[in-house]
């Protein structure tokens, strides 16, 4: 499998590509895409990286799995393609931004606009079989994306990590909290949000305050 990745990330992650687990993972992914319908589209598997260069990364949002319905996943966590109905978690993200920052609810759920400003939208597992949530977990993706988080922690400074829900919070152990900023809350899924663990976290204004204090541009959420 040819890894279609921008140079800044390729330079950081080349050691992972050479490891046996990653070669096994790529064989698994190729086989799955040949034999089943999988998401995102093959060309979009590494989109999160290709829309946000390593040295431009100011914020990291961690998801778990790509959307597994038709035409939803575009390679960025929580994001959907233009014109696609917003899934429940994304609706709650936009509602929180609306109340936190007074920004009108957006028409498009495509978060490439965030990525281009330095927000890495990283799913722990980068592929999934259609209509089978979690079907590509535990095949090596998590090892790879943990390495991504570790590289960012070690080789960059002052990154804001947004850890939403129990799964994402476990990634805190990979991050040097003295060099970076960790914002944690419940997950934006309806189950968590309706229990009061998501709304009112003010992560988007908090993130922009951190970036502003560092002399960085705010994210236009």
TrEMBL record:
A GO MF term: uracil DNA N-glycosylase activity
Q: What is its main location?
A: cytoplasm
The EC number(s) this enzyme carries = 3.2.2.27
Q: Which residues form the Uracil-DNA glycosylase-like domain?
A: 50-211
Q: Where in the cell is it found?
A: Cytoplasm
Q: Which UniProt keywords apply?
A: Cytoplasm, DNA damage, DNA repair, Hydrolase
Q: Tell me what reaction this enzyme catalyses.
A: Hydrolyzes single-stranded DNA or mismatched double-stranded DNA and polynucleotides, releasing free uracil
Task: Extract one GO cellular component term from the record.
Answer: cytoplasm
GO aspect biological process, one term: base-excision repair, AP site formation via deaminated base removal
InterPro entries hit by this protein:
UDG_fam1, Ura-DNA_Glyclase_AS, Uracil-DNA_glycosylase-like, Uracil-DNA_glycosylase-like_sf
- Per its UniProt record, what PROSITE patterns does this chain match? U_DNA_GLYCOSYLASE
Catalytic residues in the record: 65
HAMAP family this protein is in?
Answer: UDG
Known role: Excises uracil residues from the DNA which can arise as a result of misincorporation of dUMP residues by DNA polymerase or due to deamination of cytosine.
What family does the database annotate? Answer: Belongs to the uracil-DNA glycosylase (UDG) superfamily. UNG family.
Q: Could you identify this protein by its name? A: Uracil-DNA glycosylase
* Natural source organism: Maribacter aquivivus
Q: What is the lineage of its organism?
A: Bacteria, Pseudomonadati, Bacteroidota, Flavobacteriia, Flavobacteriales
